[in-house]
Amino acid sequence: MRARGSVVIAREPADVFAYVSDPSNDLSWRSYLVASHAVDAELTVGSIIRQTYSYQGRSVDVDLEVTDYAPPEHIGLRARGKIPARINLTCAPESGGTRFNMSGSAELTGPASLFEGRIQRELDQTIATDLKRLKAALEGSGDSRSPRVV
């Protein structure tokens, strides 16, 4: 299963990268996330980010390992746990701002694979919502309903 989204943010790539690569900012723009912190003092390849998600009354802890770290352009993450997943966040200059791309892939197995279509739809919607929230947070806009999300 794969999902991705993109948005143009009216900020410099270095600003966007600094914001999205700092786990202390995650709660401001990531859906279903109730806790996020870096285990290590400095974020580098091999660092762990510990996150707690809550969905439909259930919570799950996930450790994300930083697999790629190239400021201010790219950070890659791999979920450690029951569902193998990868997340890639990239920043590139565009139109006087930054094109921010978010993509992820996961390998659903067992009973979860039976619901892949539903999970895919929810994930696509979650990414669209998260990108709107990120744009609003970084541009200082209280209105996150109409950003240019692709």
Polypeptide structure, described:
This protein is α+β, with helices and mostly antiparallel strands and 150 residues long. The protein has a single domain, classed as Alpha-D-Glucose-1,6-Bisphosphate, Chain A, domain 4 (2-Layer Sandwich). It contains two helices and seven strands, in the order βαββββββα. Strands 1-7-6-5-4-3-2 form a seven-stranded antiparallel beta sheet, with helices on one face. A hairpin with a 3-residue loop joins strand 4 and strand 5. It is globular, with a radius of gyration of 15 Å.
Properties at a glance:
41% strand, 7 strands, 7-stranded antiparallel sheet, 150 residues, alpha+beta, Alpha-D-Glucose-1,6-Bisphosphate, Chain A, domain 4, 2 helices, disordered C terminus
The oligomerization state is single chain
Q: Give a quick account of the main beta sheet: strands, pairing sense, barrel closure.
A: 7 strands, antiparallel
CATH class wording: Alpha Beta
Helix content: 10-25%
Question: What's the gyration radius in Å?
Answer: 15 Å
By secondary-structure content and strand pairing, the structural class works out as alpha+beta
Total number of helical segments?
2
CATH architectural name: 2-Layer Sandwich
Order of helices and strands: EHEEEEEEH
Spatial order of the strands forming the largest sheet: 1-7-6-5-4-3-2
Low-confidence parts lasting 5 or more residues at pLDDT below 50? Answer: 143-150
Strand content: 35-45%
